[in-house]
Amino acid sequence: MQRRYDSQTKHPILVPVTSFCITALIIGFIISQIAIMDRKNQRQHAKNLIQQISFNLQTSLNEYYDYTQFWKNYIIQNNGNVPNFETVAEALYSASSSIDSISLSPNGITAYTYPKSMADDSINLFTDPSHRDDAKHARLTKQTTITGPFAQRRGGYSLAIRTPIYTGKDEDLNSFWGFSTISVRMADIFNEAHLSDLKEDNYHYQLKTINTQTGTLDTIDCSTYDALDDPVSTMFAIHNAAWTLFISPKKGWVNYTILFLEIIIGVFVTLLMSFCFTALWLISRRESTFKKVSYLDSLTQLQNSRKFYEQLSDLNSKRQDFAVLYIDLNKFKPINEQYGQRSGDELLVIVAKKLKNCIREGDEVFRIGDDEFAVIIPNQITINGLSNLMQRIKQSIERPTVLGAATVQITAAIGYARYPQDGDTFEAIVQSAEEMMYADKTAIIETR
Questions:
Q1: Facing residues of 376 across strands?
Q2: Which of 315, 267, 279 is nearest to 420 (CA)?
Q3: pTM
Q4: How far is CA 396 from CA 185, 225, 302, 359, 391, in A?
Q5: Residues 6+ apart with CB under 8 A from 82
Q6: Angle between helices 341-358 and 332-339 (to 10 degrees)
Q7: Count of CB atoms within 10 A of residue 155's CB?
Q8: For residue range 214-270, what is the model confidence (pLDDT) as tens digits?
């Protein structure tokens, strides 16, 4: 021990250096955890954002899908004819400001278009390079397709929502009538879904879809063509198409300005805490010879047996009236053996709390053994008062206690003694209380 003391005295620099290193590691760990948590929160916020946007996109496009289904049902009900096309198309066109055009293509050849200003010469969708793959795929799968973007005459881009129409019940190729197509302005759809708001929120985004014909990942819309930094993504289905929205912050997931400030603060705190630890160590070294023996039981945080006997001796020397309760737990050891020491320790802590809740203000509880406790009552108390207190303690301890997944029940044997009625020394008082406790324990065993 002397050698260790000399070593620390000769090398005092070890204490501040060690405390600085340990503190630096702790502060560094805290800063890294804050950065990780901040990144996690940012990514979760971004995930929630794109999930909402994807839902908005699905909702918007489903509305126009319903328009193509309307034409399908309309043509089937009219036995393949298209009466009053202009009137019906005008009503649908007026219902939504995002529709660019409405067209019907019997046998794949565009014959009806609204508004007329958008009409081209009859286009054969099965031979036109821009539409043939999509048209063949839709006729083969009998499913609605969404393709694009296509350049609009009035500027901007549009998406084509195309539904194949079969007039026969079995929808065989012989009953294939043609297509109903709704062209919607892409900018309007994305504005409705608040996709462009991502740029205002300092995010870059890329909306992509898998091209069912080529198998490539094609870009539908984006704020940049550059590769995104570790993006958050969500995939969602729109009929035959699988779309994926990718986003990442324009300045990256790490805010280096905040991180730099955190590091500066961390260095300052490290130096301050290192100084404090060193100062405390010096104070502790100087006062080590005057340090008192601890009177606290480390498990239950009750005062221990050393304090118990010291306080009894003090009361005895002052000739002050007092009473002692000696408490021993029954069935504690089987519980400790069955459920383990950790559960046993937890039970002792609970018992300690119960005892403190039972005593009066001014009374003190002690843990004086493994499963033994004591109470000092530093005032006069009647036999009836002691009986009531012991009954209250027994009832409290006997209540079932939950230890993890198990519920256990214990009892307590209690003895008491009063000064000076039961002895003129504190040793005699403790012995008398202990003997009464053992008598109580025997009585409990015999009654069970």
A1: 324, 364
A2: 315
A3: 0.49
A4: 75, 72, 18, 11, 9
A5: 74, 75, 104, 112
A6: 140
A7: 8
A8: 667 788 888 888 888 889 998 887 766 788 899 999 888 877 777 778 788 888 887
